[in-house]
Every structure is written in structure tokens, then in C-alpha cells.
Amino acid sequence: MADNSTNSTFTSTEELPPPVKISVLTPLIYTFILLSIFITFSILYRRNRVKQLSKIEPIFGENHPKRIYEFLKQQVIDQPDNKPHEKVLKAALLRRSVEAVRRTMKLKENQPIFNKLYQDGLIGDDVYKQFEIEMKLQELEFREILTECETFKKGWVQTFIPLSHEICFNEALRRRLYSMDDRSESLIEMWEYFGEKLGGESEKKEVKPIEAATDEVSESTNEKSTAAKKKKATKSGKK
Amino acid sequence: MSLEISYDSKTKKLLLPKDAEIISPEVKNDIDQLNSLTHEIIANGSDVPPVPTPENFNKDMSKMIRKLYETGVQAFKSGKFEDSAKQFSIGIEMISRRHKFESFQGTLQELSLFLMSRADANLKAKQYLKAFNDADMLIGMMMNTPENFLRRGVSNYFLGNYEAARADYQRGLSFDENNERLQTELNIVLDKILEENGDYL
């Protein structure tokens, strides 16, 4: 009897299953799995992003001065007997910097245009992204150049960039100057072409000379203009 | 790089195969630029190229260039316009041989003076295409000088490009509206355009 009249609460506690023993390793394994999933996701995400970025076409063509500099640097390591002179390397680094200056200037010139076009929805995200990446690449390129520059001579960095600017402008001026002959040839072709199209228009190009722009300017021009005015006046008088 | 570049330690130059200009003119151009810059840095003698300031401008060369300019002006004054243009061309060639790391501002000033004079000499010698080219380059260098528009306008007039000449004179006048020479030339070209269109009164 005494057994039957026992407290029910008491019996229920007795029936409870024994507590599950959790190993100390369980949370560690859990954390490990979580971390590995995280890392895998991160790796895949980054790989995918790099793949997408590599698909973006660069705005500029191949950077030849950079390749030439790298080739010369490699030459120093590979062929110590026939290694390039230090001034050749300096000149190559300057040329690389000149190219970076030229590209940066082009990008900065076009930055307001890109911004405006993007704001107006005339260019897509991909093109704008392309522009932003190019800007970033130029920054990195400059950083790399300046690090290289410091290896040649300490303190050269301060004068290096202004020097690159000057070389860049001087080269551009010379390019323009040397292209003058070719340009005049193409102008002749173009004007002759139009002359032929218009039917003997080229003959008209031999106009009566007037002397104008030179220092001893033109009495003849003045005469010509007064003559023209007189002619106008007489004709209007006749009318 | 697809082209085979080699380095010659004697001449301190980078070399390319003979057909490089055809295969890749850009690389050829870059190599040429590098070789000339190397040559200039070596010729300069200092460890690194000096800071481009007016003080570091090659003064000996400036003297030679000034002499050439004076000779050109003398020839112009004596009416030998073709000789004068030749002298100015030699001067321009000399300016272009200045070291690339010299002050750009100084080079630009010298060059613009020579181009102005050569354009005038070419106009006098009736070499209008050459004068047009010089004036066009001058406009690219000094946009707000009305005289350069006058030079290009006159060249355009004689080349038969009357509309272009009119535009040049008008642009010149936008910088200096009281310029009598530009006004006169503009009137002449306007008359010519009317005549060409058969509207001459």
C-alpha cells in the first residue's frame, strides 16, 4: 500500500531520461563547420567577382612602357653579365610614369562626361564600372612606380612626378610637330577630293593673292576691300 | 610581349627586329622614345634628370636658336621668304631636339615664336597649306590669340575654304572685336562668299 500511495510528482522525476552527455568537441565542430562554410562561400564569391572583373574590357590598350620596364627588370635578374645600365632603367621607369600621367589625364578629362552620362542613364553600370576600375588601376600603377622610384635614389620621388609631367607634355608637343607633314598630305588629299567632287573646284584654289597676316600688312587688302565697297555702292546706286 | 626585344650594352639601347615597325608600330615608337630619353639622360650627366625649371633651360641652345631666328627675320625683311621659312624650319627642328625633361613652358614659348614667323613667311611665299598647318598648330597651342586666327583665316582663304576662313576671322574677332585687320579680312571673305553663291550685289 505504501508503495501505491507514493507521490506522483516524485515518480515522474524518476522517469525523466538521463541527461544527454555533450562532448566538449561538439561546439568546436559546430564552429568549424560554420567557419568552413563561411570561408568556402567567401572564396567562391571572390572567385566569381574576379571572373566578372576580368571580363571587363580595359579602356586603354596594352601598356607597352610598363611591359618594357618589367622586361628590363627581368633582364637584370636573368642576365647579370649583360644587365641594362641603371640610366636605361631610370629612363624606362620615367617612360612608364609618363604613360601613367597621360592615362590619368585622359581619365580626369573625361570624368565629368562619364558622371553626366551615368546620371542621365545614357551609359550602363558596366561602362561606369569600367571607368572606375581604370581610375583605381592608375592609382595602383602610380603607387607601384613611386615605390620603384625610391629604390633608385632616395628623395627622387619629390621631383619624379613633375618631371614625368614635363616629359609627357614635351613628348605630346613633339608628336604633334612631327605629324605636321603627314597631316598636310592628308589635307591635300581631302581638299583635292572635294575639289574633284565639286567639279574643278580645285582650280579655284589659286586665288588672287592678298597679303594679310604678315607684319607688313596689306595695302592691297585695304585696296581690295575699298574697291569692293565702292563696287557695292555703285551697284546699289544703279538700283 | 610578342616582339623579341634585345638590349645592346654597348650602345645602351633597346633593339627590335627589322620588321617591328610593320608588326607593331606602337612598340617601335615606345622603344624609340625610350632610347632617345636614355640618350638624353646619359648626355645630361647627372645622376637623375634635373628639375624642369627655367634656370635649368639649356642656355647655349637658346643662343643658337635666337641666332637662327634673327637670320630668318633678316631674310624675311630682305624679301627672301622661302629662305626665311627654311631658317625658321631649322630653328624648329633644333627646338624639337631639346631634352624632353627641359621646361615645357620655355619650349612652348620658343616654338610659338618660330611657328608664327614661319607661318608669316609661308604666307608671303604663297605656301598656303604649310601656313595653314603652322597656324593650326599655333591655335592649338595659344587658343586666345586673335592673330593666329587671322593667319589660319588667310591660309584658308587662299586654299579656297571661304567658309572656314570666315569662321576663323569671326573667332579671332570674338577675342578682339576691334581688330581692324580681322574686320577687313572678314569683309573681304564675306564678299567672296556672296560672289561664290552668285549673290554679289
Detailed description of the structure:
- In chain A, helix 3 (64-78) packs antiparallel against helix 4 (86-119), helix 4 packs antiparallel against helix 5 (125-152) and helix 4 packs across helix 6 (157-178).
- Chain A is elongated.
- Chain A has helices spanning 8-15, 25-55, 64-78, 86-119, 125-152, 157-178, 180-198, 219-238.
- Chain A has 239 residues and is mostly helical.
- The model of chain A is unreliable at 197-239 (pLDDT under 50).
- The longest helix of chain A is centred in the middle third of the chain and has 34 residues, at 86-119.
- Chain A has a domain at 62-182.
- Chain B has 201 residues and is mostly helical.
- Chain B folds into three domains: 6-44, no CATH class; 57-126, Methane Monooxygenase Hydroxylase, Chain G, domain 1 (Up-down Bundle), CATH 1.20.58; 143-201, Serine Threonine Protein Phosphatase 5, Tetratricopeptide repeat (Alpha Horseshoe).
- In chain B, 69% of the residues lie in helices and 3% in strands.
- Chain B has nine helices and two strands.
- Chain B has helices at 20-23, 25-44, 59-77, 81-96, 104-124, 128-141, 146-158, 162-175, 180-196, and strands spanning 6-8, 13-15.
- Chain B has a two-stranded antiparallel ribbon with strand order 1-2.
- In chain B, strand 1 and strand 2 form a beta hairpin.
- In chain B, helix 5 (104-124) packs parallel to helix 7 (146-158), helix 7 (146-158) runs antiparallel to helix 8 (162-175) and helix 8 (162-175) packs antiparallel against helix 9 (180-196).
- Chain B starts with 5 loop residues before the first strand and ends in a 5-residue tail after the last helix.
- Classes of the chains: A mainly alpha (239), B mainly alpha (201).
- At the A-B interface, helix 3, helix 4, helix 6, helix 7 and helix 8 of A face helix 2, helix 5, helix 6, helix 7 and helix 9 of B.
